[in-house]
Each structure stands twice: as C-alpha cells, then as structure tokens.
Design brief:
Blueprint (H helix, E strand, L loop, with lengths): L3 H19 L8 H11 L5 E4 L6 E6 L2 E11 L26 H17 L5 E9 L8 H7 L8 E8 L7 E3 L2 E2 L3 E10 L3 E2 L9 H12 L1 H6 L7 E9 L5 E2 L2 E10 L2 H21 L3 E10 L3 E2 L1 H15 L4 E3 L18 E7 L20 H16 L2
Parallel strand pairs: 3-4, 3-5, 5-16, 6-15
Antiparallel strand pairs: 1-2, 2-4, 6-16, 7-14, 8-12, 8-13, 9-11, 10-12
Helix pairs in contact: 1-3, 1-9, 3-9, 5-7, 8-9
Length: about 375
C-alpha cells in the first residue's frame, strides 16, 4: 500500500509529529515550531526557504524543467486547551494543545518534501510547501501570506486535514463548497440597572438577552430556505456582578455558518433587526457588530476529479468517501483567491481515536500519517510530471 520511500520516512514523521505535539504554540506565536521546521529543512538539499511573516515558513522546490507551479499547505498552530490525554508525548505547554491534528499535517508535509527533494530532477515546475501559521484565529495566517505574495504565480493549491469523523485511510472528497463561511456577531444589550427588589424601576438586560437568544433560533427555521444549510449559535453570554443587582448591560457573542453568499450577507441585518426590536420593546437598546471570518473552501471540479483518481489508484476505490459539506471553517479559502484549489479530509478516527477535534482528550490515529505522505508525494509528482 505504501511505497518503500514512504515506509522509510514514516518513523521520522511520527517522531516529528510527537515533538510538535509536545511543544504546541498558539496562533501567531509559533516561533519554536517555525525554528524546528527551519532546522529540519536545512538538512534537505535543493530547496529554498522563505519566511514572509513572523512565524511560519515556505519551502520552494524546483524541478529540472518548466511546468506549472503548485502550492501545498499545512497549518502549524495549536489551540488554547489544557490537554487531558495520557500520551507520553502530551503537551508540555500549560493551556495549549494540538487538538486539531495540525502537528500531523506539518509532519506529513515535511516528510513529503523530504522524499520529493530527493529526486527533484524528475519534476517539471515548482512546488511551494507552505507551513502556515494561525489557522485557528481570524483573520488567519493564510490571508496574511496571500497579502505577502506567497501565492503569486501559483496555478493550483492543495490542502489536507486529518479528521476523526472518518476511519483511518479513508479520504473525504467533495467538489464545490466543502466548508462553511464562519463569521462572528456581538450584541451588547443596554438596559437600566438597579436593585433586584425593584425590577419595575429597571430595564432588565438579562430578560432582554434571554428573549433575543430564543428569537435568534428562529432565523434558520423561518428566514432561510429549508434546503440550505446554515447555523446561528450563541456561544457566550456575560453580564451581572452580584446575585441581587440587575446589571446595566449584557453581552451576547456567537457565530454563524453559511454556504451561500446571499445568506451570509443577509444574516447581519436579520440578527440586528431581531435584537434591536426586542430590546426596544422592553425600553432598552443594543450595540451590534458583525465580523466576517473565513469564506467557504471551494474545491475545483477538475482538481477534485484528478485527486479522486489519484487516491483510487493508490488505495482503491473504497478509500474515497463522498462527503457532505462541513460546518467548520477553514482559512485555506484565502489561498484560493487567485487560483483553483482542492482540499481533502483524511480519516484518522480508528484505533480508539473517537474524541472530536478541539477536545482536551482528542487523539489522532498515527496510522493515518502514511496515507497522507503517500497522497502528497503522488499528488506533486502527478501535477509536476
């Protein structure tokens, strides 16, 4: 199933992944991770490194002849989570954990680069291996890299994400919209505080906030087409300082997930209108803000078909799963601004690795690493043949 060159580098890949897992770093703070990658890539002949941002690094591998330019992206940041696994290589950084597989993404791409650099004379064109910072924190590292010109001249861009949703070695494939657009809303409910014994003299923002939260749940069921996926989630509510004081303000924060531009652009006004009207009915008011986050990852039809064929040739037709759109967001979409792209979900959910991403007990099946390396190596050779 795996080539001899993949089998040979797999132990190193596992070692790299475990080292990265022990020393996770938050978005825009990945200095040790970047240094680790630079040191490892200094050992790889025939590549050129660029560091366009404070953290993250790009390795450029050129073949012996002319051809297309492709980019591959692996995200390197971790999450603000206290790890609660029993791994021998568990996080040594308090409150920070690789709970989304980014350590695996980074290690697989580093392994693929090592293999491909060994026979770059057989490649025609250029491959840019982007080790990207800050996927987890909008505005995200991908947008920053795109602004720095990393994608200039790139014809195609590819990404991969390990997923606990699918069995190890299965590839989740979908043409068109793969991930949702992820945005944020903040509502400050302004009332009139006072003594809890005299609510009639107050304008209670807690009551107003409760009604707003309930009313927002009707947006998806009553304001959006039933056949169109969307999510409006309230995730934070803050207010009050004592059990017997009606506060003056309450803040509500949440996220929206959409796929169509029409619905994405409709939601800010809908949320604002509902919240404003409820507050006014009680004699209060609101301050509202809406922050656009990551756009949907859009898989190019032709690139999807080609990658599907590659996966089937390498691992069999049963290795390809046709998947539904995914609600989580992905800043890979920023790298698709000027060229077509393809993003695939690689299953890593076997062998007891059942905890979901962004969970303090998240585990990744390391057997998935070989599948990822093999796929990336075959992909580059296919596109630069």
């Amino acid at each position: 199933m795996f080539s001899e060159e993949v089998k040979s580098i797999l132990p190193s890949c596992i070692e790299w992944r475990r080292t990265l897992h022990m020393y996770p770093e938050l978005s825009f703070e990945e200095e040790r991770t970047t240094d680790f990658l630079i040191e490892k890539m200094k050992e790889i002949p025939g590549i050129r490194m660029e560091k366009p941002c404070k953290t993250g690094v790009v390795a450029i591998l050129k073949g012996s002849g002319t051809g297309r330019t492709i980019a591959l992206r692996a995200d390197i940041d971790a999450l603000p989570i206290e790890e609660k696994t029993d791994l021998q290589f568990a996080s040594k950084t308090s409150g920070v954990m690789h709970a989304c597989g980014h350590d695996g993404h980074t290690a697989m791409q580093l392994a693929a680069l090592s293999i491909l650099a060994g026979n770059r004379d057989k490649l025609k064109g250029e491959a840019r291996f982007i080790f990207q910072h800050a996927e987890e924190l909008p505005p995200g590292g991908a947008a920053e890299l795109e602004e720095k010109g990393v994608m200039k001249g790139v014809d195609e861009v590819y990404g991969l994400h390990l997923s606990s949703l699918f069995p190890t070695g299965a590839f989740g494939v979908r043409a068109g919209a793969l991930t949702s657009a992820t945005d944020r809303f903040d509502i400050k409910v302004i009332g009139k505080g006072g003594h809890s014994a005299y609510p009639e003299s107050c304008v209670d923002p807690v009551v107003i906030a409760a009604e707003i939260i309930s009313a927002l749940q009707t947006i998806v069921s009553r304001s959006i087409k039933a056949v169109e996926p969307a999510v409006v989630s309230v995730c934070m509510i803050n207010g009050g300082s004592a059990y017997n004081i009606i506060p003056g303000t309450v803040t509500i924060t949440g996220s929206t997930r959409t796929f169509s531009k029409e619905t994405r652009n409709k939601l800010p006004e809908t949320i604002r209108r509902i919240s404003e009207s409820i507050a006014a009915a009680h004699g209060g008011s609101i301050e509202f803000s809406f922050s656009y986050g990551y756009a949907s990852v859009m898989n190019d039809k032709a690139l999807t078909a080609n990658s599907r064929k590659l996966i089937e040739e390498a691992f069999g037709k049963d290795a390809v799963l046709d998947i539904d759109p995914l609600m989580p967001g992905e800043d890979f979409s920023a790298l698709e601004k000027d060229c077509p792209g393809f993003f695939v979900e690689l299953g890593a959910g076997s062998n007891g690795c059942t905890f979901p991403h962004h969970n303090s007990r998240y585990l990744m099946d390391e057997d998935a690493l070989g599948y990822g390396i093999e796929y990336l190596v075959r992909l580059v050779r296919n596109r630069l043949s």
